From TrEMBL:
Gene Ontology MF terms: DNA binding; DNA-binding transcription factor activity; pyridoxal phosphate binding
Family, per entry: In the C-terminal section; belongs to the class-I pyridoxal-phosphate-dependent aminotransferase family.
Name by which UniProt lists this protein: Putative GntR family transcriptional regulator
SMART domains xrefs: HTH_GNTR
Signal peptide: none
Organism, scientific name: Ilumatobacter coccineus (strain NBRC 103263 / KCTC 29153 / YM16-304)
């Protein structure tokens, strides 16, 4: 991975204020030199246009010296500004004023094919609707006695909580329900990451995770994955930076499809045990019940330090918008407490639907059939690509990570054939790196696998 911290700085824009000018602007606007006062002063300068989108702000130490305050005061001001979406922090560009909301475009929005442009859209991880359980009969039998006595009631139905704890991948200290896996990751980041904290992720990883961390003001360190998961030798070095959290995908890694082996789980757990004693480990199990392999979790090896997110979108239906968070008590308690200031709980009607689905043996059989179908589609694509000398990992889940000679050309060439795929660059930690991969999701790859392989092989080849 390219270390962005040693990359040459970009050429400054002539109209941007110098560091000393920016310090002077902030000092003049700052009537209260607390962290809140500094943040409010900068916010006012942004609103008035004195600081424009893209303008680089002084370093924490520089501004602290200029204002004669502690570095922690300015760092807290930066955290406040980051939380409200007013600044961006990147190792290459320093801290800059963020573009207005109408101008922002995160990595995630570079992944899906443009709406209506693909006859066969394989750019997202959407499951095949034909393989999802039907909710029609279940909705007609919903109970009418799901009521609350207080807004302070427990956020999880007791029966559902007991069921999930009994099925959890390891002994969980606590469990709660939220509105999908991304909602879970977002809330856990908010609960555990402060502005300027180091966060370790796999490289590549799912783009929304990187977007969330950027908005949180985190300093992200990417650790490459190989055919067995995140590399323990490089993780060992990354953990020397004492990250606040590490976000990993032990099963069906997105975008590569790689799942950790039991041996790799032990190696990675050993690295975490040696270093970063105060680092929370967040496991994102986005594939949920479509990929179930007992023991592929760090939770059994690192009790009290792991939080696992288990999604039910791909297995039971994206429109349920439901996921469980289970594991270490402290970060889950922080999520529950903060959520009380907003929605407080995920609809108990939806929770009841999930409980009913999870206790229906016919639904279990449908989910297993869906897993078998996705596995067959994946196998056919992988075998076809390998037969044409394109090396891809076996993997699990819906996603396949395909090397190509030229990423942009491959995406365009497939689009001309009516096939939408995801470009690889947004999945990389360093957005400036050219990935020269595409991600193909097999959820909608129902027919004509041979024709799809031919199109992918042609797009992957050099000109």
């Amino acid at each position: 991975m390219t270390d962005a911290s040693i990359s040459p700085p970009p050429i400054p824009v002539a109209s941007s204020p110098t560091s000393s000018d920016a310090c002077a602007l902030i000092a003049d606007a700052c009537v209260d030199r607390t962290s809140t006062g500094v943040a409010e002063a900068i916010g006012g300068l942004v609103r008035r246009g004195a600081l424009a989108p893209g303008d680089r702000l002084p370093t924490v130490r520089t501004l602290a010296r200029f204002l004669d305050v502690s570095s922690s005061t300015v760092a807290e001001a930066w955290r406040i500004l980051g939380r409200h979406g007013l600044i961006d922090t990147a190792r290459r560009n320093g801290t800059t004023v963020r573009a207005g909301r109408a101008e922002m475009s995160g990595r995630f929005w570079k992944v899906p094919a443009s709406a209506g442009t693909a006859i066969l859209d394989l750019s997202t991880g959407t499951p095949d609707t034909a393989l999802l359980p039907s909710l029609d009969a279940m909705l007609r039998t919903l109970p009418t006695d799901i009521t609350i006595s207080s807004y302070m009631d427990r956020p999880v139905l007791a029966d559902l909580e007991d069921l999930l704890l009994a099925r959890w991948a390891f002994d969980a200290e606590a469990l709660t329900i939220v509105d999908g896996a991304l909602d879970a990751i977002d809330r856990l980041i908010s609960a555990t990451v402060s502005f300027g904290d180091v966060v370790v992720v796999e490289d590549p990883t799912f783009p929304p995770i990187l977007d969330m961390l950027e908005r949180a003001g985190a300093r992200v360190i990417g650790v490459p994955v190989d055919a067995h998961g995140i590399r323990p030798d490089l993780l060992d070095h990354a953990l020397l930076s004492e990250p606040a959290i590490a976000i990993i995908q032990p099963l069906a890694h997105n975008p590569t499809g790689v799942s950790m082996t039991p041996e790799r789980v032990d190696e990675v757990a050993d690295v975490f045990a040696r270093h970063a004693q105060h680092t929370w480990v967040i496991e994102d199990h986005h594939a949920g019940d479509l990929v179930t392999r007992p023991g592929i979790t760090l939770g059994t090896r690192l009790p009290g330090r792991v939080v696992r997110v288990h999604s039910y979108s791909k297995s039971h239906g994206p429109d349920l918008r439901i996921a469980a968070i289970g594991g270490a008590a402290d970060p889950i308690a922080a999520v529950v407490d903060r959520r009380r200031l907003g929605p407080s709980w995920t609809s108990r009607l939806v929770q009841h639907i999930l409980f009913t689905l999870l206790t229906d043996t016919a639904v279990d059989e449908l989910v297993q059939r869906a897993a078998d179908v996705y596995r067959s589609r994946r196998r056919a694509l992988v075998d076809g690509l390998r037969a044409n000398d394109i090396e891809v990992v076996d993997g699990e889940g819906l996603n396949i990570w395909i090397p190509v000679a030229d990423e942009q050309r491959a995406v365009v060439a497939l689009a001309l054939h009516g096939i939408g795929v995801a470009p690889g660059a947004p999945f990389g930690v360093d957005v400036g790196d050219r990935s020269n991969h595409i991600r193909v999701s097999v959820g909608n790859a129902r027919d004509d696998i041979a024709d799809l392989v031919d199109a992918l092989v042609a797009a992957a080849a050099p000109v």
